[in-house]
Specification:
This protein is an alpha/beta fold. It has a single domain, classed as HUPs (Rossmann fold, 3-Layer(aba) Sandwich). 27% of the residues lie in helices and 27% in strands. It is built from 6 helices and 11 strands. The protein has a 9-stranded mixed beta sheet with strand order 9-8-7-10-6-1-4-5-11, sandwiched between helices. It has a two-stranded antiparallel ribbon with strand order 2-3. A hairpin with a 2-residue loop joins strand 7 and strand 8. Helix 2 crosses helix 5. The longest helix is centred in the first third of the chain and has 15 residues. It is globular and about 65 Å long. The protein binds adenosine monophosphate. The site of adenosine monophosphate (AMP) has 23 residues, from helix 1, strand 4, helix 3, strand 6 and helix 4. Keywords: Electron transport, Transport. Heterodimer of an alpha and a beta subunit. Its cofactor is AMP.
């Protein structure tokens, strides 16, 4: 079974984002960028499926600036076999990403596409679902466990009330949640080896997709500053204050 793993280059999760002075977006100048954490989990899951003998090939794909090549090299160093970079300037919205991925799915015919449940920059949580709709493939979202037997893919999903297990018939789409696995670090020899793994370069036009935005960002602002706390003398005063706020009965 061939696996397709879309990985997005995003602002590193350890960086505290700064909003641009003019409120048009987040300042990305000189900011550390990394692979979206949920996508690292997707790459790890794909590698584990290959180690179990379920997957035969792992193809990583990224849509974004030329620098997204670094993100793909990370996926290759972790264990992906080859990569496709679709070079697009500016922000590419989830619908355009899903359309490009649909074209790649048509071309590559993967048995499973494993995406992150959301990109931590736009927090959209849309691409996997849109890709499932566009390809007409079944989807198992927010996976905390994935098992594959033949063309049956069992996905345990983290839902509000607990865990739900669904059975999908491959080819299918899976999106990863945080508890699915703990991604490995790439070893130095594998980082070196990744440099010579194949990386194809494409454009959205190659897939007939127009990536011009359909949404307009009106304003981006910092969250309100937290006001200072108040020290209370004892529990009675704390309870009284909570009652006054309507928090305690
Ligand atoms: P989103 O719907 O934007 O929250 O993204 C969900 C998932 O879709 C991500 O975790 C990635 O697996 C995939 N994805 C979104 N944007 C891109 C992109 N530009 N390139 C590759 N994969 C992407």
């Amino acid at each position: 079974m061939k696996l397709l793993v879309p990985v997005k280059r995003v602002i590193d999760y350890n960086v505290k984002p700064r909003v641009k002075m003019d409120g048009t977006g987040v300042d990305l100048a000189n900011v550390k960028m990394s692979m979206n954490p949920f996508d690292e989990i997707a790459v790890e899951e794909a590698i584990r499926l290959k180690e179990k003998g379920v997957a035969t090939e792992i193809v990583a794909v990224s849509i974004g600036e030329a620098k997204a090549q670094e993100t793909l090299r990370t996926a290759l160093a972790m264990g992906a076999d080859r990569a496709i970079l679709v070079v697009a300037e500016g922000e590419v919205e989830p619908l355009a990403v899903a359309k490009i991925l649909k074209a790649i799915v048509d071309e590559e015919q993967p048995g499973l596409v494993i995406l992150g449940k959301q990109a931590i920059d736009d927090d959209s949580n849309q691409t996997g679902q849109m890709l499932a709709a566009l390809t007409g493939r079944p989807q198992g979202t927010f996976a905390s466990a994935v098992t594959v037997e033949g063309d049956s893919v069992k996905v345990t999903r983290e839902v509000d009330g607990g865990l739900e297990t669904v059975s999908l018939k491959a080819p299918a789409i899976v999106t990863t949640d945080l508890r699915l696995n703990e991604p490995r670090y790439a070893s130095l020899p594998n980082i070196m080896k990744a440099k010579s793994k194949p990386l194809a370069q494409k454009t959205p036009a190659d897939y007939g997709v127009d990536t011009s935005p359909r949404l307009k960002t009106l304003n981006v602002s910092e969250p309100p500053k937290r006001t200072a706390g108040v020290k209370v003398a004892d529990v009675d005063e704390l309870v009284a204050k909570l009652k006054a706020l309507g928090v305690a009965a």
